[in-house]
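Recall the central idea of this unit: under ordinary conditions, the amino acid sequence of a chain determines the structure it adopts. In this exercise we apply that idea directly, starting from the sequence alone.
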Amino acid sequence: MARASHVLRMMLAAVAIVATSAFHAAAQSAVPPTAELADRCPGLVASHTPRVIPAAFRTALAGDQVRITYAGHSTFLIESPRLVRIATDYNDYVRPPVTPDIVTMNHAHSTHYTDRPDASIKHVLRGWGPNPEQPARHDMVFQDVRVRNVPTNIRDWIGGGTERHGNSIFIFETAQMCIAHLGHLHHTLNQQQLNEMGRVDVVMVPVDGSATLDLEGMFEVLTSLKASLMIPMHFFSAYTLNRFVSRAKEQWDVEYNDTPSILLSKTTLPTKPKVLVLPGR
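Accordingly, the structure predicted from this sequence is:
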């Protein structure tokens, strides 16, 4: 009996040592990185489910309302008055909480597209064409939504040059509003591209300032667009978001929303340009 008690005590001591080592290892791994490191190595921090109740997506909208939910990274769920659901930059890592009717994608990274979209999705719109000389061209109507695109170039990450027409700015027209998603934008826009986009009420803008367009270039784009509402995305960390917000406050009002979802209508858009930050990354 004494020998059994001794063995039991030895086993408990071993477990305690392992548990203590695991605790210290976890504590060390939980040390927050520096701002610069977090900016260089963002990872996929957008993979968490948005803090929304799925039942809310079954709630009918008024005839002039659009619901926008930030799923994370560059993915938003846009819902029209007739509950047509659109997911932007649809990929294998960050997905909206409901299956969309329409998805748009861009080619810069695998976090902006997938080769395996859900088979039940009615319309899959890729933002790049079969080759650099044939850009993607979309202009479709589904129920109360029109979707069209404006091609832009991206960096060739392997060759170090330019991949022509590898990105698309997608524009969603519904409820008398034009909502633009800039995708993985790498350069400022020329007048022809601005003319193709037309008037924009809401714009979803990547604000990381490094993997996409640098901050000064992005502010040039936003100033040219003159959208009533600008929603940041693709910011990876509090550091990159705060860097963008600090610069934005020099020109526009900035507001933080409590939830990842907002209801918009033409009549409730701000009378002067505003940046609206939705929780998530």
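Residues 2-29 form the longest helix (28 residues).
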